[in-house]
Amino acid sequence: MRTIITGGTGLIGRALAARLVADGYEVTMLSRNPARQTRLPFGVQVEHWDGKTAQGWGGLADGADAIINLAGESIAAGRWTAEQKRRLVESRVNAGRAVVEAIKLAAANAKPGVLIQSSAVGYYGPHGDEELAEDAPAGSDFLARQVAVPWEESTAAVEALGVRRVLVRTGVVLSAEGGALPRMLLPFRFFIGGPLGNGRQWFPWIHLADEVAAIHFLIKNRQASGAFNLTAPNPLTNAAFGRVLGKVMGRPAFMPTPGFALRLLFGEMSTVLLDGQRAIPRRLLEAGFQFKFTDAEPALRDILIH
Predict the structure, then answer these.
(1) What is the pTM of this model?
(2) Separation between Cα atoms, residue 270 and residue 196, nearest integer Å
(3) Radius of gyration of the chain (CA)
(4) What distance in Å separates the CA atoms of residue 73 and residue 124, rounded to the nearest whole number?
(5) CB 139 within 8 A of CB 124
(6) What is the DSSP-derived secondary structure letter of residue 121?
(7) What's the whole-number mean pLDDT along residues 202-217?
(8) Which of 34, 39, 82, 242 has the most CB atoms around it within 10 Å of its CB?
């Protein structure tokens, strides 16, 4: 099978590419700086793209079995100035439009089998303790209404072309190789770990192995379409997750970081740390996907000890 991954040089993209190559897939990754991509899995081909159009790579979509669109500026790349907010939105919307352009070109010959469109559980906005399955409405905050909604809508046009489209709303991906976890470990290593803010916000986590396996599952499952929450079935509050992390590391988890300090340090971006979603993977479970890690303690032990 032939696949194309946009934005694939990040944590999820690299792991997914390695899994697909190991399973016999032909994987092409799109990058704005191909010459700098030296850490990609063996066997992955890299092609240049500008992140905005199908120029130079659009022909690859012709007959592709799957396109996985992961492209987008990191939410945690810096304080949310007006310029950074613009980059967060435009990097996602422009990438989606480029994918649609490529698929329209391919549709006249052999359209792709499926488009996996990345999104995030931030789509739902803060909802307190309410469980959020995929039919929950979009939130009204910046991450929900101005980032996640247009991000998802950027590729909606491919459905009218007869292409199966899957939206993957991902939680916090746990891995020692990158993402949020390595930054969370530091205070615990110095015995000052603990909850962020009041600790009551929900922490919708997923092990990287399950994130990759779920995307692979959704590529292969031809009945799968629409939104899927990619989160472990048993989310925890931030305080509870901190206690589990401290237990696995053999460290206490009693030192809270005040919410006001995080707001002063990060500004509006502190919502990523202080607000959360109790997202559950209802549709993924109903489709028959089996998680390897349903609970945080074995997931963290796998990452940090084995």
Answers:
(1) 0.95
(2) 10
(3) 19
(4) 19
(5) yes
(6) G
(7) 97
(8) 242
Q: What is the DSSP string of 198-244?
A: TS-SEE-EEEHHHHHHHHHHHHH-TT--EEEEES-SS-EEHHHHHHH
Largest CA distance in the chain: 60
Residue 37: exposed, middle, or buried by beta-carbon count in 10 A (0-12, 13-18, 19+)?
middle
- Give the whole-angstrom CA distance, residue 265 versus residue 271: 12
For 265, half-sphere exposure in the C-beta direction (CA atoms, 13 angstrom radius) is 14
pLDDT of residue 39: 77
Q: Are 265 and 208 in contact (CB under 8 A)?
A: no
Q: Inter-axis angle of helices 11-22 and 208-220, to 10 degrees?
A: 60
Paired with 230 in beta bridges are 170
Partnered with residue 205 across adjacent β-strands are 172
Q: Which helix (H) or strand (E) holds 116?
A: strand 114-120
Q: What is the DSSP letter of 75?
A: T
Side chain identity at 252, as an amino acid letter? P
Question: Which amino acid is present at 26?
Answer: E
